[in-house]
Structure formats: C-alpha cells, structure tokens
Amino acid sequence: MQRPADDAPAVLPCVQEQSDGVHAVRQEGDPRARARALEIKILAGGGNEDWEARVDLVAAVGGELRIQAVVLHAPHAEVVLLDVASGSVVQVGSSRVPGAGIAAALGAEHRTELETSRLLSTPRHYAYLKISEGCNWKCGYCAIPLIRGPHVSVPFERLLEEARSLAAAGVRELMVIAQDTTYYGLDLYGRRRLGELLRALCRIEGIEWVRLHYAYPTGFPDDVIEAMAEEPKICRYLDIPFQHISDAQLAAMHRRHTKAEALDLIRRLREAIPGIALRTTLLVGYPGETEQDFGELLRFVADIRFERLGVFAYSEEEGTRSARTLRDDVPDPVKRSRVERIMLLQHDIAREANLARVGTLERVIVDGRQGACYVARSEFDSPEVDQEILIPAADKRLMRGRFYTARITAAEDYDLYGRIEA
User: Fold this and answer.
1) For residue range 224-265, what is the model confidence (pLDDT) as tens digits?
2) Mean per-residue pLDDT, 107-124
3) How far apart are CA 214 and CA 134, in angstroms?
4) Which of 73, 110, 117, 416 lies at a CB distance of 3.0 to 4.6 Å from 100, suitable for a disulfide?
5) Which is it for strands 403-411 and 373-378: parallel, antiparallel or unpaired?
6) Do residues 16 and 38 lie in contact, with contact meaning Cβ atoms separated by under 8 Å?
7) Residue 377 and residue 382: Cα distance in Å, rounded?
8) Could you give the C-alpha distances from 69 to 47, 95, 106, 121, in angstroms and in order?
9) How many CB atoms lie within 10 A of CB 156?
10) Does the model's pTM come out above 0.85?
11) How, if at all, do strands 373-378 and 389-392 pair?
12) pLDDT tens, residue by residue, 373-397
C-alpha cells in the first residue's frame, strides 16, 4: 500500500457514534475530509475468531478518502490500515497504542490531547457516550461476545473528559450506551461504578439530560436506581431488554435471572422513580418456546404495560450457544404470528399511554423541523427509536437543541402533538 504524498493532509479523526476507538491524529482546518462508516472482519491477533472492526480514523489525500484506518475493538486485536482502492489490509501495530501505530505508518503526528476528541454524526445537541465494549454474559442467542469480545470498561476519568468536551461543543443530552451498561467498572475497578458515573455526568456544566440505554436485568445495581431517583438530570427513562419472562425460556436463553427477579426489579424501579418510561425488547420463537411460554409472555406485556417495546423473531447466529446446541424448532409462521400478537397488544397499550398524557405540561428538546412542524422529544423518548412530539412551526420560531415547556394537545398511536407554553 502506498503512503500518502508528503504534502497530503494528515489523518483526521472519524468518530462513529457506536465506536470508542482512539481518535488521536489530526491536522487542523481541512474541511475536505469527512467520516464514512465501514465494517470489515479481520483475524484477531493470537486467535482464530473473526472480530468486527469499525472505522476510527480517516486519511484524506488530495481531497478524497483514499486510505481508511481501522481499529479493532477486541482487547488484543491488531491495528490495521485498509487501502480502500485495492481492498488490501496492512498490519501496522498493536491495539494498545493504535493512534501512535497508525500515525507512524502514515507519517502523521500522534497527539494524545485529542484522544477524546469527537466529530459528531448526530445533531450537535445530543451524543452517545459509549462506556464499555463487549459483554461477559454469553446469552444463548447472542453473537456479541464472539464479535466484540469480553467486557472492557472505558476508564472513568476518560469518560468524564470526553463528556466535558462534548458539553463544551454544545451537547446537552448524553445517551449512555454499551453492550451492557450496568456491568460498567467491574473489570477495571472490581466493582460496578455506573451509579457513580451517572452522578458525575450530572455535575458537568452544560449537560441537561443523561439517558441510560442497554441495561442488563441481572445484578442491576441499587445505586443506579438511587441515582436515577435523586438526580433531576437523569431522564426518567430506562432501556432494559428482558427478552422473555417464562422461567423455562430464560433458562434456555442463559439469561441468569428468573421471572420473579425481573418482576421485582420492575417493581423497585417504578416505586423509586414514579413515571419512569421503561423500554424493553423481547425475543419470541426461541428454540423450545411453547404456547404456554408465549402465553406467559403475553400476560407479562399486558400486566407490566411497558411504555416502549420492541419484539423480534429468533434466528440462528452462527457460533452462538443456541445455534450449536439447540434445534430451531419453532416454525417461521408461528414466530411471525407471535411477533404480530405482541405488537397488536403493545399498540393498544402505547395508544392509551399517549392519550393519558394529553393536557400535561412537559419539558421538551427540539431536534429539528419537518415540514410544518418542529420535532421535539420529552425525557421519556430517546432519539430515532422512540416517539416524537410534533409542534406547529407557525406558532413560534424554535431553536434546535433548545429546551421548552410544551403542553400535549393530542395523541396518536406512536406520536404526540403539542404547543409551546414557555
């Protein structure tokens, strides 16, 4: 692979929102380089498994993206350069110092002060803060441990530095994400530190909302519930995939918690945080799921009345426990029918919940404008995945990324309408 010409721009950081790679090399002031997502699979160093990689750095040559640098997220994987034109991959260093290895290969400067620098692909008022990579749970259906490797937490102070940098750039809402956010800190500090992290993020000037995604039910930390109840900046919102509720299915899925434990956690969350919006995902058609198991799941959805819910039909993922040891014995038409039955039930639940909000005053953030309406959200809705509050643009000029008080005036199945009152 040819090295860029001496007068070519150095590497510019490309920050993908679902990435926590090193973003350390930059030449200031070159607007021609832009981020472009790419995923490839490369053999991890010292092993026989393929690990997923994402673009973390981009080299701009003559105004074109000719070379892309890819950093593997596996803890012991190699750092590589990918020549986009030829498709060839050249190994250039260890992932323990990826910025330096890539910089040396391209003749660029490695600047440690830019390691938490971010170029946002989201609107500038919200951003995703990825606090760890990988997962240790090894649920039966899930390929994440095979792709991402074991859980690796990002150091506490580095996360705070990144969050402060985002706030200084205008970010007002942080979405805390990982494959399992509630496990955060165990590998680095010997204890879970998510509760401490959430409180620390709330102390950062400029951050108004902190939103928690991808919590795992097993071992849910009590101090996280306490932080959510006590810190006004933490949204009354929790994304926590339960997957199923039948004890037989939970055991088959290797989920490490029981029905009773799941119900107790939901009770504790709702008692401590009144009005909390719970988002969950469910999996139907897993090997061995009987009509009795599914009926139990339907009753669970009807009784709990999740504010946000998604459901997926099981499909085998190569290399997973279930693909290796279980027969995919639920017919596809049955899987599709079960998905539809849950979503029909959830449709009615969501509509009733929305109608109950009509007339209420809610603090909202404006994400943008679509046609004759501004698009806003409350603390109960995450961008891109949840519902929106539509506000007539003719009433008043609103600013994207600003907070307002809106009165909910009407409701549909998955959207709300409102007017600004302050």
Assistant:
1) 999 999 999 999 999 999 999 999 999 999 999 999 999 999
2) 61
3) 12
4) 110
5) unpaired
6) no
7) 8
8) 21, 12, 10, 18
9) 17
10) no
11) antiparallel
12) 999 999 999 998 999 999 999 989 9
Nearest to 416 by CA among 379, 376, 384: 376
The pLDDT confidence band at residue 145, using thresholds 50, 70 and 90, is confident
| CB-based contacts of 275, cutoff 8 Å, min separation 6 | 236
Residue 8 CA: distances (Å) to CA of 3, 92, 411 = 10, 20, 54
Classify residue 94 as exposed, middle or buried by CB count within 10 Å of its CB (0-12, 13-18, 19+).
middle
CB 176 within 8 Å of CB 207:
no
Token pair for 225: 């519930």
- Checking DSSP bridges between strand 173-177 and strand 209-212, what pairing results, if any? parallel
Burial 178-214 (b: 16+ CB within 10 A, else e): bbbbbbbbbeeeeebbbbbbbbbbbebeebbbbbbbb
Q: Of 419, 396, 415, 376, whose CA–CA distance to 173 is shortest?
A: 376
The pLDDT-based confidence of 62 (bands split at 50, 70, 90) is: very low
Give the HSE-up count for residue 108: Cα atoms under 13 Å, Cβ half-sphere: 31
Beta bridge partners of 313: 284
d(CA 9, CA 27): 7
CA distance 372 to 282: 35
Residue 55's beta-bridge partner residues? 70
Q: How far apart are CA 173 and CA 381, in angstroms?
A: 12
